[in-house]
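Sequence in, structure out. Go.
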Amino acid sequence: MKIFENLNFVLVETSHPGNIGACARAMNSMGIHNLCLVNPKDFPSKESEARAKSGKTVLDKAKIHENINEAIDASNLVIGTSARSRSMPWPMMEINELGKVINESMARKEKVSIVFGNEAVGLDNEDLGKCDFHLQIPTSEDKSLNLSHAVQIVAHEIYKGSSLSDLSTQVREVELASSQQKEKLIEHIELVLELLDFYDHQNPKQVPARLRRLIKRMQLDKLEIGILRGILSNLEQRLNK
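Output:
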């Protein structure tokens, strides 16, 4: 479906080629065709093609990246899927909200990435920290779903949302910042805080992690990022005098 042309499904370090093929088939069945593979263990492969069936067209145009940053840098909204809760809770998106959010983002021509971790451990904390929202699929007892099953459920929710969302939603006054722009802002904040000697030396990682969560939750636009970077640059110059 053309409406999903700015939507990417990102698979991080997938270990089994058959799962890549099954994910491609699941995506294709719901009209989603942009697949990004971050450092896959075995791709391309005959097994992934065999499992993809009608989704082979998705495999044929799949993009391979060395790291997650390459895959999501241009995205305005990044959603990370994970069955595991974290010691520091991340902003959550409910599965029943997903279809509406994604389809309205598509109507605004925003770029969206949905990130899936590998089969064994899912997304690590560092990769989840690059996402704006954490998505968990509700389950009964065994919280961990097969990768392709998770992709199918997410793809179906998005497809279902295409008939429920207000696709004439108002265009944003200013485009949302990209993932790369948000990462640069976080780096700039951390630099200025180091110049201020702000960090608690006994627990130096606590503040950066919470700042990252705050920035991701705020959904800043490009103009707001520019204003904040300007303030930080001014502070940096004064501190370096």
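Check: The chain has a mean pLDDT of 90. The beta strands are 7-12, 34-38, 63-65, 77-81, 92-93, 112-116, 133-135.
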